[in-house]
Amino acid sequence: MNKTIELHLTSDPPLLSVMRAAVSKVCEIAGFDQLDTSKIILALDEACSNIIRHAYKGKSGQSIIITCNIKPTKLEFILEDQGAPADVKMIKPRPLNEVRPGGLGVYIITSVMDKVKYSEGMDEGNRLLLHKNRPKGKK
Amino acid sequence: MNLKINSEISTQLALLRINGEVDMFSSPDVRKAIMEVVKKKIPKLVIDLHDVNYMDSSGVATLIEGLQLCQKYDGSLRLARLRDNVREVFELTKLDKIFKIYTDVETASQ
């Protein structure tokens, strides 16, 4: 049986801490330990920060919807925004041997999650699917 | 939720004690505090992260910028007392090999 929670927030950085608290609880329900929970929170935070920074160009008050699906074998997040569509081909993690500020968010997301999929060819907005396999034996 | 930064600055050593969550909302405050030290070219900057319970890549980016600015005048930036989840961000991004990380402020300040 799937369990679903939908989070609606606006593109305001102070709200990211509220999102993190909610995602922490979702991870707890899905049976993740503290270390994996902190990594998943980080990945979601990076994804939302990217929406605020790139899709909405820092504009506050814009819609971000995060659907969290706790499935039997995985925890799935779908992030949807109505901002400028990203060029999916340009979204790549940067090499870590370049020590410079910025550009680490995509690397973190792809390192932490088991699947990362950006929807291509959307008329407006963006849709990002993230999933993490659940620990075995947790239902 | 509010970030607090306590600064103790002398001619040879600056100690920044940060308390709270460092994310895209609060990292500009950390940057401002680091810039105050960098402007004065204090040789050693120690950042105590014991009371930082969360840090994202914007926080890490701010520290990288601080490290590089300190290196420009032969200064050093050192991190102390990282919590496990904050240390994990540095390990994940392999930056634990770049930063000098200490378990206590006293050793970091030497």
What does this structure look like?
The complex is a heterodimer of chains A (139) and B (110). Chain A is an alpha+beta fold. Chain A has one domain: Heat Shock Protein 90. Chain A is 32% helix and 26% strand. Chain A has a five-stranded antiparallel beta sheet, covered by helices on one side. In chain A, helix 1 packs antiparallel against helix 2 (34-55) and helix 2 (34-55) runs antiparallel to helix 3. The model of chain A has no long low-confidence stretch (mean pLDDT 91). Chain B has one domain (4-109): STAS domain (Transcription Regulator spoIIAA). The longest helix of chain B has 16 residues, at 57-72. Chain B has helices at residues 27-39, 57-72, 84-92, 105-109, and strands at residues 4-9, 13-22, 44-55, 76-80, 100-102. By secondary structure, chain B is α/β, with parallel strands linked by helices. Chain B has four helices and five strands; from the N terminus they run E-E-H-E-H-E-H-E-H. The relative contact order of chain B is 0.18. Chain B has a five-stranded mixed beta sheet with strand order 1-2-3-4-5. In chain B, strand 2 (13-22), helix 1 (27-39) and strand 3 form a beta-alpha-beta unit. At the A-B interface, helix 1, helix 2 and helix 3 of A face helix 2 and helix 3 of B.
How many alpha or pi helices of chain B?
4
The number of distinct structural domains of chain A comes to 1
The radius of gyration computed from the alpha-carbon positions of chain B, rounded to a whole number of angstroms, is 12 Å
Number of separate structural domains of chain B: 1
Quaternary state of this entry equals: heterodimer
Q: Can you give the helix content of chain A as a percent range?
A: 25-40%
Give me the count of strands of chain B. Answer: 5
Which percent range describes the beta-strand content of chain B? 25-35%
Q: What is the CATH architecture term of chain A?
A: 2-Layer Sandwich
Number of helices of chain A: 3
The backbone outline of chain A, from C-alpha atoms, is globular
| CATH H-level superfamily title of chain A | Histidine kinase-like ATPase, C-terminal domain
Low-confidence stretches of chain A: none
The ordered string of helix (H) and strand (E) elements of chain A is: EHHEEHEE
**Average pLDDT rating of chain B:** 95
Biggest sheet statistics of chain A: 5 strands, antiparallel
Q: Tally of extended strands of chain A?
A: 5
